[in-house]
Predict the 3D structure of the following.
Amino acid sequence: MSTRSLARVITGHGIIPRTRWLERLLTMFDVRRTRIDLARLTDAQLNDIGLTRADVEQELARAAWDVPAGWRRR
């Protein structure tokens, strides 16, 4: 299986659809990774995108499953 086809399966856009629980689990991992990346930004970078270090700390304190409703597929 090529890397591209494997990515399509993992992301749910391939021949094997992801089950609802797997979709949620992968979303939680993505959210956690994104929040960690956000924490690694410098204060100047955060300022560029309109955030403060306090905003980041508040985001990091949220649970991995606490995401905007638009991020959850139905």
